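Thread: Pyridine nucleotide-disulfide oxidoreductase domain-containing protein 2, structure

OP (GT): Posting the sequence first so everyone is looking at the same thing. Length is 452 residues per the record. Can we get the structure tokens written out before standup tomorrow? I want them in the notebook alongside the other entries.
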Amino acid sequence: MRYDACIIGAGPDGLAAAARLAGAGLKVLLVERANETGGPCATREFSPGFLVSPFADVLAAIPAPLFRDLDLAPRGALFTAAVPGPYAELQAEVIQRVYEDAARPVAGGLSFQRRMPEPPFPGEPLATMALADIAPEGVSLEAASLMPFDPAIPGSALAILAGAPGGLARGGLGSLGKALTRAAEEAGAEISLGLEVTDIRRRGGRVSAVSLADGREIGTRAVISTLDLKRTFLSLFAWNELPKSLVERVGAFRSAPGVARFLVALSHIPRRAEGLRAPILLSADGERAYHAWKSGIVPTRPPALVRVVSAIDPAMAPSGKAVATVTLGGIPHSPFDGPWTHEKRLKLEALARDMLEEALPGSAETIIASELLVPPDFENLLGLTEGDLMGGELAAAQMLGFRPFAECRGMRTPVPGLYLAGPSSALGPIATCASGWAAAAAVLADLGGAHG
């Protein structure tokens, strides 16, 4: 069987791409290694009556016009209002430009990938600026990102572009995953779960098929990968099939500092949590935490974000009880002294408990259930290289028109017929669903519409 397009990964970008392509009349196959759609858009019951989104509480905002294009609200994706941060105006301008790029890609690439005299991308000047130079007085520098970094380094200001948070999804992020799945299915996309793509095949230098773990080969005119950059090129192709320069560029793409997630069920609602809509940031020395992570060491005080999810969405916990999460930044995927053992997890869990107690005094003694996720868990559950939820470091050389590298124009890659969406792509860290929507637009432009 032959398809117009095969999409690898049924996370938000893959589902958005499938909805756009199928809605335009193309024959689309969406392949997902897990047994359910959504990727990071998941909600699960980690203790009886207690619900949580295990991978993230919020994602980067979906551009409002794209949210409407996908008709997500009628399909069950409802959000609380986001708490505006100090950079909200700039972030809104950037997200609007992202949507314009996703809706109308140009032959030369996305607007911020074109050379002058084209209008510059709104956030482009940040590539040469340090966050310390632009942070408003009294604003914690780490508030821009959970990723540890040196705020004095030129280009660190780009951290504020990544993941301008949307509101909290009612019922957890799983409701967004389900709404996007409905959008793709109702558009006519075919979704295959529990199947892994093992190879991307080429004929005459152009993508021609994908091979599945069950031995089947599926013919296709185009492939959109929502996997991260390294997993796309270094696991789905034989290295000797690709130009050496491309393999070297992919290998040099740097991962972002990892995070850990501590999920807790509380027997009582913390007093400080009543009416608390914004997360609590526990600051750290970002530069010191960054160097600890680079050395494979858990920082003694990592940057942390504490959120009482049920204070915003009471349905996430039984009446009178609470669900909270602690997200720790700068957590290494591979500790210098060996893999994550049970003892290392217990030590990190104790650190997370202490930080929860610091943010919400008295809460630690009310914990009735908990779960800790570290980078190898994200790698196993989501198929992310090194468990990197960001899909690559947010640095000047890996953002805007340089992400993942300058040769990728308009979501197209150096391999004809292969398009990159997801976190490693140019739009990936900035807005949810936008990279999938833009990749689909590029496919439509290149294939010229429906062919069947």
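GT: Both are above now. Quick notes for whoever picks this up: Residues 346 and 372 are 9 Å apart (CA to CA). DSSP finds twelve helices and 16 strands in the chain.
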